[in-house]
Design goal:
mainly alpha; 1 helix
Length: 88
């Protein structure tokens, strides 16, 4: 039987003040006032680069879908007009 000894390191935690010294009651509510909260630190935080990238990808995908739908409708209409002999 082998005994494994582990050590535990406790690091001091310092939390940044998310309110910037403001009163807590100013920042709690349905619509918090401007200046409440903290700047995005990680790319996945609210207002971070990943959020903007996701928004851009979603808008691009919607544009691509719209273009594909428009092209297929145009193609369908041209084929229908040719079949009926309604060439412009």
């Amino acid at each position: 039987m082998q005994i494994v000894q582990t050590t535990r390191v406790v690091l001091p935690t310092t939390l940044p003040d998310p309110l910037g010294g403001r009163n807590v009651s100013d920042c709690i509510g349905l619509y918090p006032k401007p200046g409440c909260g903290s700047e995005p630190v990680l790319s996945g935080d609210r207002g971070g680069s990943m959020q903007y990238a996701t928004f851009g990808i979603m808008i691009t995908a919607l544009i691509v879908i719209g273009v594909r739908i428009a092209r297929s409708i145009t193609k369908r209409d041209r084929a229908r007009d040719e079949a009926l002999g309604l060439n412009d």
